[in-house]
Amino acid sequence: MNIDTQGARGWRTRRAALAGLGALALSAWPRAQAKAAPRLVTLGGSITEIVYALGAEQQLVGTDSTSFYPPAAARTPKVGYFRQLSAEGILSLRPDAIVGTDDIGPPAVVAQVRSAGVQVELVTVDHTWGEVQRKVQAVGRACAREGSAREWQTRLDEQWRAVQAEVAAFKGARPRVLFILAHSQTPRVAGAGTAADAMIRFFGGINAMPDFEGYRALTAESLAQAAPDVILTTDQGLQEQGGADTFWRRPELALTPAYKSRALATLDALELIGFGPRLPQSVRTLHRRVVLRAAA
């Protein structure tokens, strides 16, 4: 009898200990989950878009002013334009990590955020498919979803190869395309080394302004020399100019072949020059809208 009583007591003791360990494990589980879900600030519309595509939007505590896609991103707390940041504004959101491109700034702000112990992921901008890949990988690391990011990247790479093959299959004459950045009342045209220049080449066009780097003011002389077959701009830029009818009233445009046929193509700014995960889709859209239409 004594032996049985001692055995029962021993079992109750062991059971209580196991229950305690179970409760301890359960209480630790939320903390482990919290560590696996870092708080993020994203700087750049394409990077924010990737966070949403990976299903990590609940980890976003702030974004920059260019982050407006998907529509829910427009409602996130804003830290300002990604090249005019404030360390105080970012740090007030208590992020574990920020993800941006290597052109965010000022540099002193980035250094201050780093010194505060925040993980900083900066992606090199070079207007290639590799840039998109690096953005996906950086977001995957920052939000602790590297496996999902790799799987998604495989699918994106397949899309990219397919659209490259579609563009390469076109053997007709390639149109001369002029990109006009018209988000203000002083429009500028895109030369070499710009996101617009890369996009034009990707969808099979020829940049009508290849002889300078970056952006320059729109002038009648430059337009006459460029002789573009098609004008390309953003949806937002066209809206800023008052719509297509108002846009074509600019006197310098009358000097171009594009004016005679009113050959104008537009796309959302983030899709057109953001170099995000919709790049394959954007290249296909513009190839069909610009190159194939010009050849018809």
Helix content: 40-55%
Q: What's the pLDDT, averaged over the residues?
A: 89
Shape: globular
CATH topology of the largest domain: Rossmann fold
DSSP strand (E) fraction?
5-15%
Can you write the helix and strand succession as a string?
Answer: HEHEHEHEHHEEHEEHEHHHEHH
The number of domains is 2
Instruction: Supply the number of helical segments.
Output: 13
Q: Judging by the overall fold, what is the CATH architecture of the largest domain?
A: 3-Layer(aba) Sandwich
CA(first)-CA(last) distance? 100 Å
Question: Number of DSSP strands?
Answer: 10
For the largest beta-sheet, the strand count, sense and barrel status come to: 6 strands, mixed
The whole-angstrom Rg is 26 Å
The CATH homologous superfamily of the largest domain: Nitrogenase molybdenum iron protein domain
Given this structure, which CATH class of the largest domain is correct?
Alpha Beta
pLDDT < 50 stretches: 1-34
**Estimated structural class:** alpha/beta
Could you walk me through the main structural features you see in this protein, from its secondary elements to its overall organization?
The chain has two domains: 40-165, Nitrogenase molybdenum iron protein domain (Rossmann fold, 3-Layer(aba) Sandwich), CATH 3.40.50; 170-295, Nitrogenase molybdenum iron protein domain (Rossmann fold), CATH 3.40.50.1980. It has helices at 2-35, 45-53, 87-91, 107-115, 129-142, 146-168, 195-202, 220-226, 235-240, 244-248, 257-261, 269-273, 279-295, and strands at 40-43, 60-63, 97-101, 119-123, 176-181, 188-190, 206-207, 215-217, 230-234, 264-267. It has 13 helices and ten strands. It is globular and about 55 Å long. With 296 residues, the protein is of the alpha/beta class. Strand 5 and strand 6 (188-190) form a beta hairpin. Strands 5, 6, 7, 8, 9 and 10 form a six-stranded mixed sheet that branches.
